[in-house]
Amino acid sequence: MENETYLRLGTLKKPFGLQGQVRCASLTSFASLRFVPGAKMTLYSEKAKERKEVTISSFRDNGNEFFLGFEGINTIEGIEPYLGWHIEMLKKDAILPEGYYRLSDLIGLRAFDAENGDSLGEIIDVVAYSKTPNLKLKETNGKIAYVPFVMDT
């Protein structure tokens, strides 16, 4: 399982209640599809480079954050060692609804000017630090450019 690709869904922030539930910052648009009771996930510490497999026992969505419970973690003391860890799942298991895609799947594709069809360059990253993600392009001349990613609706 070490060579498999994981999809980061959130970050554990602080305990919630007395039964080991935790408040998480959300990094997914499909929390209710991912965090169903019985779902297998992993907790990952970037600092320690350590993974712990967990099973979801409870989920409640609250917009930009959600509350999770894990089987076998039933106290505040049980969840505290994992605060700051990320919750992830295998990318291959994170099915998207029809018509949706991941911004990370754009990396490696070529971008074209919609008016004249000229190649703008290759998408080398997607930067999502603001409400509107930006595509990081390596232009055909080798320079780096950032282009706001705006979808037609």
Shape: elongated
Average residue pLDDT: 89
The end-to-end distance, rounded to whole angstroms, is: 39 Å
Number of helices: 2
- List the helices and strands in order: EEHEEEHEEEEE
Strand composition percent? over 45%
**Overall SS class:** mainly beta
Characterization of this structure:
The structure is a single chain. The strands form two sheets. The protein has a six-stranded antiparallel barrel. It is mainly beta and 153 residues long. The chain has helices at residues 31-34, 76-79; strands at 6-16, 21-26, 40-45, 50-61, 65-70, 86-90, 110-112, 119-127, 134-139, 144-148. The model has no long low-confidence stretch (mean pLDDT 89). The longest helix is centred in the N-terminal third of the chain and has 4 residues, at 31-34. It is elongated, with a radius of gyration of 19 Å. A hairpin with a 6-residue loop joins strand 8 and strand 9. Helices cover 5% and strands 45% of the residues.
